């Protein structure tokens, strides 16, 4: 019988960026699960559409202004997000702090625009199947928008308050990665909700 191998882990780093980080893997796993939820809801949308004689059901399509404005802002939000991620990977505390506050403000602005989007969906969630699935998609994405904006705000406060561990820079990098998921999932939701009813 062979001797068990013993590995001295004392010299391993406490944190790492990218795929060397357990946080990175956790974030990827969460995005996969949440992406499946978006995919299932989008499939429900198209299934309901295939069963309905008219689509949207007794409602005009959503107005494009607010959804398109939100899409443009979401795409632009990738710029400060990418900059903040790069600064975090260089351990540039001051720039990370500024970037986090900027990203938090962008998130709050996007939530304000989201109010306009909900107001112009032209259907209530309880009107019919179309309304339910549209509000489900919008609600799912709004939940992601709120939680990531909140997480970014918490990181901004941590970086503004004083001493912090170097692993917090990894948290900023992973938070930025999650924001890309929020952005990409919005592009799918926008296409379905705002253009799917027009096809």
CATH homology-level superfamily: Cytochrome c oxidase, subunit III, four-helix bundle
User: What is the helix tally?
Assistant: 5
Shape: flat
Number of domains: 1
Could you say what the CATH topology is called? Four Helix Bundle (Hemerythrin (Met), subunit A)
Major β-sheet profile: none
- Low-pLDDT parts are none
What is the residue-mean pLDDT, rounded to a whole number?
A: 93
The CATH class assignment is: Mainly Alpha
Question: Assembly type of the shown chains?
Answer: single chain
Secondary-structure element series: HHHHH
Number of strands: 0
Radius of gyration: 21 Å
Q: In the CATH classification, which architecture applies? A: Up-down Bundle
The helix/strand class is: mainly alpha
- The CA-CA distance between the termini, in Å, is 68 Å
Query: Which percent range fits the helix content?
Result: over 70%
């Amino acid at each position: 019988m062979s001797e068990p191998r013993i590995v001295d882990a004392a010299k391993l780093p406490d944190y790492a960026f990218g795929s060397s980080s357990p946080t990175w893997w956790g974030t990827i796993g969460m995005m996969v699960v949440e992406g499946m939820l978006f995919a299932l809801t989008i499939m429900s949308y198209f299934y309901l559409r295939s069963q309905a004689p008219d689509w949207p059901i007794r409602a005009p399509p959503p107005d494009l202004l607010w959804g398109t404005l939100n899409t443009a802002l979401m795409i632009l939000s990738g710029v400060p997000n990418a900059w903040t991620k790069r600064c975090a990977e260089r351990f540039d505390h001051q720039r990370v702090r500024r970037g986090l506050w900027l990203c938090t403000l962008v998130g709050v602005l996007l939530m304000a625009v989201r109010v306009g989007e909900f107001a112009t969906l032209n259907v209530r969630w309880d009107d019919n199947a179309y309304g339910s699935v549209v509000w489900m998609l919008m609600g799912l994405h709004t939940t992601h928008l709120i939680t990531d904006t909140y997480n970014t705000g918490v990181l901004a406060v941590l970086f503004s308050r004083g001493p912090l561990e170097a692993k917090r820079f990894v948290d900023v990098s992973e938070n930025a990665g999650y924001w890309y998921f929020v952005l990409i999932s919005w592009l799918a939701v926008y296409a379905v909700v705002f253009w799917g009813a027009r096809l």
